[in-house]
Amino acid sequence: MLSHERKTHLLSLLDEQGSVVAKDVSRELGLSEDTIRRDLRELARDGRLKRVHGGAVPIAPANAPFPGRIGIATPEKVEIGKRAAAMIEPGHVVFLDGGTTAIQLARHLPRHLDATVITHSPNIAMELLNHQGLEVEIVGGRLLRHSIVTSGAATIAWLGRYRPDICFIGATGLHPDQGVTTGESEEAEVKRAVIEKSGSAVILASSEKFGAVSSFEVARWTNIDGLVVAQAASRKAAELFGHLGCEILSTNQTGSRR
């Protein structure tokens, strides 16, 4: 089997199964593990997959810069934003992460809601400008242009002052074995700090992130209380993540714990 044929086969397996184990493929094809690992390394170098111990998983498409992510799964993100906004109650102190799905959450908050929103995203703050009932706390720090959020030591120190009732966190990869991941190390640090300080942690989970992995861990599943997903993706989310102990929250249900 030629190199390009092997790589096509590997990508096909990845699409069908959600992961590739080098040992299993080498046995299937009657080739050495070194050959399969080399193919996986080359595919990873070309941005086609993400290498993990023993094999590979899909690479997260949401690693693109912010302007390029706006069009990804937009109707789904609107649905997720509406569902997440309905979880915020009067008097809540909420942390709202940056990202295109979080913007949809901000857009669907009731204008009269009396609550406090903490965010390190200038875009989120601008979305909430006309919500007269909301107190908006903007966390300072160094601006990451890729994601349009603040980050760094100043951001972490600032966040140490807060104890949110609930935080809504974005991610670029959600994998049942590899956990919640993102593509920027400093963003991962901020997200971890927020989750640690919050009463509950909820992931805004559009389906293109299911099964994908990025380079930096945000949290293991034991630290996540819920995933907000679109109705059409709720069955898939339950299959992948329901057994991990977090609620699967969609527009057609209040939650399901497996």
Automatic annotation (TrEMBL):
Residues 3-58 form the HTH deoR-type domain. It comes from the Bacteria. One of its GO terms (molecular function) is DNA-binding transcription factor activity. Pfam families: DeoRC, HTH_DeoR. Keywords: DNA-binding, Repressor, Transcription, Transcription regulation. PANTHER family: GLYCEROL-3-PHOSPHATE REGULON REPRESSOR, HTH-TYPE TRANSCRIPTIONAL REGULATOR SRLR-RELATED. This is HTH-type transcriptional repressor GlcR. It comes from Roseibium album.
